[in-house]
TrEMBL record:
Keywords: Heme, Iron, Membrane, Metal-binding, Monooxygenase, Oxidoreductase, Transmembrane, Transmembrane helix
Designated name of the protein: Cytochrome P450
Superkingdom of origin: Eukaryota
Cofactors that this protein relies on: heme
PANTHER family: STEROID 17-ALPHA-HYDROXYLASE/17,20 LYASE, STEROID 17-ALPHA-HYDROXYLASE_17,20 LYASE
Organism of this sequence: Patella caerulea
Keyword Transmembrane helix attributed: yes
Record-linked SUPFAM superfamilies: Cytochrome P450
C-alpha cells in the first residue's frame, strides 16, 4: 500500500517483480502500469492500438478542474482536441520566422535574470530558485498575452500559487483520493482546506488572464495564445468559456511546472558536478562568441550541452507518471489482456531508472547520449528510443518544443556568463526519490554562490 503519496516508489518495486507491465485493481478500477518506453510507444503510438488507447479516464479533476474535460490535457481524443492542439502549436511558432520571435521573447527575460544574478555576484546565498521562477512566469505571461507583465510580483504570485496547489493535488495518489472519495472536500479538515484554496486560486488566475480588459485587447490584436483562441472562439461556438478556461489552466501548469522543475534540477546538478559545468562552458566558448547571446541555431553544434540536458531529464525523472490514458475497448499486448475502460499509467519513473535499459542508472552520465565521436545520438538511436520524457504519440506533451527550447536558452545563457557554486550553502539532496512526490518534482530550495566568469560583462 502506498503511503505519503509515494506511488512511484511502490510501482518501482512492483516493476522489479512483475516486469514491464502489471495490473492492480483498486475498488472497481483497473490500473495497468507500463514500465518501458518501447511498450509505451507500442500501445500509444502504433497503428494497431492508438485509436483505442488515447482517451482520458473520468476523474474528479477532469470534472471539477478542467470543466468536464473541455481542455487539452484531460479531454478525450477527438477532432476538437486536435484543433485545440493546433491552436497552441500556431501560438508557439517554433518554425520559420517564429523562431526569432520566440528567441526575442525568452532572451528579453533572460537578460533581466542575468542582471539580477550580476547584482548578486559575491553574495553567499543567492536564491536561484526564486529568480528562475520569476523569469519563467514573465515568459509565460508574454506567451499567453503577447504583452509584458506590468505587475511582475502579482503575476508571479498568482501563477506560482495556482501551480503549487495543482502540482500537489494532481499527483497520482491525491487524484485518486479525490476521485474515489469526492465527498471528503465537504468535511472539515486539510483536504477540504486545500480544495478551497485551489478553487480560490483558480478564480484569481481567471481574473488575471480573462478579465474584460484583457479580452478586449486580445480580441483586437489576436496575438499570443489567448488572442489566437479568442479569435477562434468568434467563429467556433464549441470553443466556449469552459474550453478557454481549461486551455488557460493547462498552459499555466504545463508551461511552467515541468520546465521550472527541470531547470532547478539541472542547476542543482551543476552545483554537484562542477566539472560538467566547466565542460559545458568550454563548449559554449568554442561555439558561441562571448559578445552575442546563444541562439536556438546553436543547438546543432552543442552536442555535450544537449546530452547533459537529456541526461538531466532522465536522472531527475521529475515527472514520475504521464497523465493516465483510458482504453476504449479491450486490447491484448505482450500476452496481457487489457479490458475496456482500464487506466493506462505511463511509468516514466521506472523507465528512467531501469537497469535493463541504462548502464549505471543511478549515476549522472551525459556521455550515455553521445556517440564515440562526441556527437549527440540521433532520435532514432536505440538509446534515444528508450527515452520519452515528454510522452509518445498523439497525446505527447504539447509544450515539448516550448520547454526544450527555453531550457537550452536558459542553460547556455547563464553558463556563458556565470559560474555557479555551492559556496557555504547547504544543498538539497540530489536523489529525486527524496523530493516531494508531486506531479512535477523538484528540489525544495536552490541557493548558491554566483560569480561572473573572467572577461564577461552584462550588456
Amino acid at each position: 500500500m502506498a503511503t505519503k503519496n509515494d506511488v512511484h516508489l511502490k510501482a518501482e518495486i512492483l516493476s522489479k517483480k512483475y516486469g514491464d507491465i502489471f495490473c492492480i485493481r483498486v475498488f472497481t478500477r483497473r490500473f495497468v502500469f507500463l514500465n518501458s518506453a518501447l511498450l509505451i510507444r507500442k500501445l500509444l503510438s502504433s497503428v494497431k492500438y492508438r485509436d483505442v488507447t488515447n482517451d482520458r479516464p473520468q476523474t474528479f479533476f477532469k470534472k471539477h478542474i478542467s470543466h468536464d474535460g473541455r481542455d487539452i490535457i484531460l479531454k478525450d481524443f477527438d477532432e476538437r482536441l486536435v484543433k485545440l492542439r493546433q491552436i497552441v502549436h500556431r501560438s508557439i511558432k517554433l518554425y520559420g520566422e517564429g523562431i526569432k520571435v520566440f528567441e526575442n521573447m525568452v532572451n528579453t527575460e533572460i537578460r533581466n535574470l542575468k542582471q539580477e544574478l550580476w547584482n548578486s555576484t559575491g553574495e553567499e546565498s543567492f536564491d536561484l530558485d526564486s529568480a528562475i521562477t520569476f523569469s519563467l512566469t514573465r515568459v509565460l505571461y508574454t506567451f499567453l498575452t503577447n504583452e509584458p507583465a506590468t505587475d511582475t510580483k502579482d503575476v508571479c504570485d498568482i501563477i506560482t500559487t495556482y501551480d503549487k496547489l495543482i502540482n500537489a493535488l494532481f499527483s497520482f495518489g491525491n487524484n485518486m483520493i479525490f476521485t474515489f472519495f469526492p465527498w471528503l472536500r465537504y468535511l472539515p479538515g486539510p483536504i477540504a482546506e486545500i480544495w478551497r484554496k485551489t478553487k480560490h486560486s483558480q478564480e484569481r488566475l481567471y481574473d488575471l488572464f480573462l478579465n474584460s480588459s484583457i479580452k478586449r485587447r486580445m480580441k483586437s490584436h489576436g496575438k499570443g495564445l489567448l488572442g489566437n483562441i479568442f479569435r477562434e472562439a468568434e467563429v467556433d461556438d464549441q470553443i466556449d468559456d469552459g474550453c478557454i478556461k481549461g486551455v488557460l489552466s493547462n498552459m499555466v501548469t504545463a508551461g511552467f511546472l515541468s520546465t521550472k522543475g527541470a531547470l532547478a534540477g539541472f542547476f542543482l546538478l551543476m552545483l554537484y558536478y562542477p566539472e560538467i559545468q566547466l565542460r559545458i562552458q568550454k563548449e559554449i566558448d568554442d561555439n558561441i562568441d562571448r559578445n552575442r547571446e546563444p541562439s536556438l541555431d546553436d543547438r546543432a553544434v552543442m552536442h555535450y550541452t544537449n546530452a547533459t540536458i537529456l541526461e538531466c531529464l532522465r536522472f531527475i525523472g521529475h515527472v514520475p507518471f504521464g497523465v493516465p490514458h483510458l482504453t476504449r475497448e479491450e486490447v491484448e499486448v505482450d500476452g496481457m489482456r487489457i479490458p475496456a475502460n482500464t487506466m493506462l499509467i505511463t511509468n516514466l519513473w521506472v523507465m528512467n531508472r531501469s537497469e535493463k535499459v541504462w548502464d549505471k542508472p543511478g549515476e549522472f552520465l551525459p556521455e550515455r547520449f553521445l556517440d564515440n565521436e562526441g556527437k549527440l545520438l540521433p532520435k532514432e538511436h536505440p538509446i534515444r528510443l528508450q527515452f520519452i520524457p515528454f510522452g509518445s504519440g498523439r497525446r505527447s506533451c504539447i509544450g515539448e518544443s516550448f520547454a526544450k527550447s527555453r531550457m537550452f536558452l536558459y542553460v547556455t545563457s547563464l553558463l556563458q556568463t556565470f559560474v555557479l557554486s555551492p559556496g557555504k550553502n547547504k544543498l538539497p539532496p540530489l536523489d529525486p526519490a527524496t523530493w516531494k512526490p508531486n506531479v512535477a518534482m523538484q528540489p525544495d530550495f536552490l541557493n548558491c554562490l554566483v560569480r561572473l566568469r573572467p572577461e564577461r560583462k552584462i550588456s
